[in-house]
């Protein structure tokens, strides 16, 4: 039995959770101990924590399928190298859990990510709704201690009044549990109400982002994060609905895709340890716009990881 399977209890496979194509046609991995991959992709087809429209359970499938549009480009523009020349990536498929029992998702996802980290690798996770980030952060904090969080979103997700399984409360719980280093964390693109007094994170709201652009955003991110180990969480509704209509809680006035890609690209040099892309809901999409956005952001992140690896090996 694979090391991933050994770390998953109460497993089941929802009918919408089967793996079609892998992300970017990366090879499938089941035994991490024999894999030479640097980064492991995982999907979490879960949307039982949504407060708006459901459908993000199909996000991993949508992002993987849309990645077919990116495979033909050997060296992605504007990078001057092919990703697979410098970074090995494998796809571990979807996390298994019992339909209708959210705690099995929480337990199995945390075990899945822990298996990846304990094998000396990092994760790239596709949601699913944003609640899936909480068990991911629990696994990361257990391995690395509290992380700097770089969070793109229309919402802060720090609300304290939600239920146990709620995509709007996950960062409230992450702070309460000591999973993130709030003094070195930052939220970008926020454009919904939150309690400003005592808010634990620095916030660059959507209006500020629009006025200052990628250069200003990156100056704040690098100053805030410094040399801390950093985790990137990208809720696709951080983008304006013009660029990401396929999501459960769209909010007008968000980031452009060009701005988002420039910011992700500008994270080069930071100590990045993992990323997730969440809240892609293909049922509300048009022409795979949102799925393609999610796949493109994830691929850009992988190029940043590769560039960091190249710089470290010089």
Indicate the topology.
Elements: H1 3-6, E1 39-44, H2 59-66, E2 89-94, H3 102-118, E3 122-127, H4 133-144, E4 148-152, H5 170-176, E5 186-190, E6 202-205, H6 206-225, E7 229-235, H7 257-265, E8 271-278, H8 289-312
Parallel strand pairs: 1-2, 1-3, 3-8, 4-5, 4-7, 5-6, 7-8
Helix pairs in contact: 2-8, 3-4, 4-5, 6-7, 7-8
Structural features, described:
The structure is a single chain. 32% of the residues lie in helices and 15% in strands. The chain contains 8 helices and 8 strands. The chain has helices spanning 3-6, 59-66, 102-118, 133-144, 170-176, 206-225, 257-265, 289-312; strands at residues 39-44, 89-94, 122-127, 148-152, 186-190, 202-205, 229-235, 271-278. An 8-stranded parallel beta sheet has the order 2-1-3-8-7-4-5-6, sandwiched between helices. α2 links the parallel β1 (39-44) and β2 (89-94). Residues 5-9 have low confidence and may be disordered. It has 314 residues and is of the alpha/beta class.
């Amino acid at each position: 039995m694979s090391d991933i399977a050994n770390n998953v209890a109460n497993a089941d496979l929802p009918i919408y959770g089967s793996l079609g194509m892998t992300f970017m046609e990366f090879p499938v991995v089941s035994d991490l101990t024999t894999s030479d991959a640097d980064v492991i992709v995982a999907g979490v087809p879960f949307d039982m924590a949504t407060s708006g429209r459901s459908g993000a359970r199909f996000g991993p499938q949508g992002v993987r399928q849309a990645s077919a549009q990116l495979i033909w480009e050997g060296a992605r523009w504007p990078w001057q190298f092919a990703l697979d020349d410098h970074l090995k990536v494998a796809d571990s498929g979807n996390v298994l859990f019992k339909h209708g029992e959210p705690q099995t998702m929480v337990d199995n996802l945390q075990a899945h990510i822990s298996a990846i980290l304990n094998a000396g690798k990092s994760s790239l996770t596709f949601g699913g709704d944003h609640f899936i980030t909480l068990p991911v952060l629990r696994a990361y904090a257990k391995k690395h201690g509290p992380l700097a969080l770089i969070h793109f979103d229309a919402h802060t997700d720090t609300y304290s009044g939600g239920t146990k399984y709620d995509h709007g409360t996950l960062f409230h719980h992450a702070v309460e549990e000591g999973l993130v280093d709030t003094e070195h964390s930052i939220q970008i693109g926020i454009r919904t109400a939150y309690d400003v007094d005592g808010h634990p994170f620095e916030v660059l709201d959507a209006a500020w982002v629009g006025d200052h652009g990628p250069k200003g955003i990156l100056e704040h991110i690098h100053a805030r994060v410094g040399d801390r180990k950093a985790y990137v969480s990208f809720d696709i509704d951080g983008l304006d609905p013009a660029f990401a209509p396929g999501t459960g809680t769209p909010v007008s006035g968000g980031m452009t895709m060009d701005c988002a890609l420039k910011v992700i690209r500008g994270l080069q040099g930071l100590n990045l340890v993992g990323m997730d892309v969440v809240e892609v809901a293909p049922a509300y999409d048009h022409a795979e716009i949102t799925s393609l956005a999610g796949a493109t952001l994830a691929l850009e992140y992988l190029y940043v990881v590769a560039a960091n690896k190249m710089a470290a090996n010089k």
